[in-house]
Amino acid sequence: MTKRKALVTGGAGFIGSHLTKLLSENKYDVVVYDDLSNGSGVKNIPKNVKIIKESILNIKKFRNACRNVDVVFHLAVKPLTMSFDKPEEVIEVNDYGTYLVAKICTELRCKMIHVSSSEAYGTALSLPMKEEHPFFPHTIYAGSKAASELYVRGFQKSEGLKMVIVRPFNSYGEYMRSDTYSAAIPKFFNRISRNQSPIIHGTGRQTRDFTYVEDTCQGIILADQNKNAIGDTFNIGQGKEISVKQIAKIMSEKYQEITKKELKLSLQYDNPRKGDVMRHLADISHARKILGYKPTISLDEGIERYIKWRLSGDS
Ligand SMILES: NC(=O)c1ccc[n+]([C@@H]2O[C@H](COP(=O)([O-])OP(=O)(O)OC[C@H]3O[C@@H](n4cnc5c(N)ncnc54)[C@H](O)[C@@H]3O)[C@@H](O)[C@H]2O)c1
């Protein structure tokens, strides 16, 4: 049986590397296309997968890489926190880069699975958040994700691009970046593992729909595998709301349980983060119905996996 040929932009990143691994285990022939400007997941990519180290902004190289490809999973991105100090770079890659990816996919008749983000919604105006929830971005990054989706939609309507849009909610798990641009979970671990109290920005009552990365990837793969999904948009989340304060507490308790250390940790509070979203909870009923998507990893289990991975020294 001939394998389906896939190209993953941003395939050396956090979600992209897990997606690449799962695709190659699911009988896809996968190529990673990533400029390795971050590449926190490069160690997670199976050894037999080819990595093309190049930018999506290099249209010639990208076109060549996409020849004979059946589906492009588009995940290359500049991170949210970078949009505070280098907004032009974020817009160039997230928007102009996505435009180029959609253009090449249209030209070569590849299917495009566009990975958008729940950030595009901003804070929930109604709960749980359906795909029809309006876009009220809080940051330039969120704006760039909203805009990029609209270009992809435009390509579908006027140029005949075969595409599916998926909107993951906050994902977490192994190979998340833990540097200056990292998210709350790696930062909490960095502090707790040094016997320091985790720092909460704002009240800690802000909520997220934290989803384990393999569940996020399950949703992304199903978006390619279901013919009824073409042209549609899907929220991909756990479907559960949890506060940032609760996450810090769970992480702290799990860490102590796993390491059998007793730490005297409390929560430390700092200024709210610029552009922070206050509430997020995904309505995943559409993905459940059309894609057969079903999250399988509980928050407890996912946090435990993440802590064990950080402790393994593989990070
Ligand atoms: N992590 C989350 O919680 C989350 C939530 C919702 C949506 N998303 C979306 O999922 C996708 C992947 O996110 P992630 O967290 O894995 O990001 P990431 O930063 O870990 O990975 C992005 C990858 O893109 C690469 N890249 C950056 N600029 C590039 C360019 N010009 N050309 C080629 N590659 C380039 C980086 O090297 C990196 O490996 C993004 O589209 C993001 O918006 C992520």
UniProtKB/TrEMBL annotation:
User: Could you list the residue ranges that cross the membrane?
Assistant: none
Xref: SUPFAM superfamilies: NAD(P)-binding Rossmann-fold domains (SSF51735)
Q: Which InterPro entries match?
A: NAD(P)-bd_dom, NAD(P)-bd_dom_sf, Sc_DH/Rdtase_CS
Domain NAD(P)-binding intervals: 7-305
Matching entries from Pfam families are given as:
GDP_Man_Dehyd
Name this polypeptide is given = NAD(P)-binding domain-containing protein
